[in-house]
Amino acid sequence: MTDTLIIDQEPPRQLSGADRAAALLLAVGAENASKLLPHLGEEDIRAVARSASRLGAVPQAIVNQIAGDFLLQLSNEGGLKGSGDAIEGLLSRVLPPAQVRQIMADVRARMNEAVWPRLEELPPHVIAQFLNREHPQVITFVLSKLRISFSAEIVPIIPNRNEVMRRMLTTKLVTQGAIRLLEQTLRDELILKVAKATGQNSHERVAKIVNRLNRKAMEDVLQSLETCRPKEAEMVRNLMFTFSDIAKMSEKSRIELFENIEADRIAPALLGLDDGIKELILSSMPTRTRRNIEQELANPPRLTEEEIETARREVADVALKLSEQGIISLNFADGSN
């Protein structure tokens, strides 16, 4: 994001960083802005307040462009980095040292506790490669903290698995300090490094973020991107998944999708659909489920357009979640999924 943005031609007008921040805070509304302001320092709040008071009218197109620029910068590697040190620095600006130490002790403890579920999101062979460099006792402890089914995928690819299993029979108590150190090492040396090495590019990340916006916000962001970065906007659109894309899915993935959605949430999403798409979706369901939905559609409830859109958004969100878990494929070019 550049430091200034020309928004008028006659005469030229520029928005500073504080002006941009003020515009975004005003755009998200008082309730959301009130949640953000406590995270700013007193001087930052003063600067934003001064900018907001003199900002005047800002065209919607410019607000959209600021939001689009911010979204792209947020998604770029290195655009924004959250860390314990960054949080501590922020808190130190507004809180007494003793209170900062107390908060950070809790924050770091929670960050480390989150290691184990995140570890299970990694491929077993990646964890095995990391553990093979560690002492058998460390391997034993890590396996004892993971789900049995997940540990069972790791054990066969550990060279010293026999020794590890023997040690597991006589597991000794481990001090809290050693546990915290191990959790921090796993987070810093394994989870974060894997995430950085295999992370998605900015377009994929933007597509996933925009996918989860409501329809109005989605179109605002995409329109802004198309105005200032048409080629990148096209790449983002091609990576997105919306309810209408269900028609492009393979039959196998479609069946799996609707097996994971409550039947009472499907009927509202089908209201107003083209008969061809509706039949395609209904054909992906078990006979009994289809019959119940057809009966509901025969005497449809009175729903607003927003309620129907919400139901369709819920279906698309489930599809995205299942895709991220590897249960279904949203690769429309792949007919084998």
From TrEMBL:
Residues 14-116 form the Flagellar motor switch protein FliG N-terminal domain. Residues 224-330 form the Flagellar motor switch protein FliG C-terminal domain. It is a peripheral membrane protein. One of its GO terms (cellular component) is plasma membrane. InterPro entries: Flg_Motor_Flig, Flg_Motor_Flig_C, FliG_a-hlx, FliG_M, FliG_N. The gene is fliG. Pfam families: FliG_C, FliG_M, FliG_N. Residues 124-191 form the Flagellar motor switch protein FliG middle domain. One of its GO terms (biological process) is chemotaxis. It is found in: Bacterial flagellum basal body; Cell membrane. This is Flagellar motor switch protein FliG. Keywords: Bacterial flagellum, Cell membrane, Cell projection, Chemotaxis, Cilium, Flagellar rotation, Flagellum, Membrane.
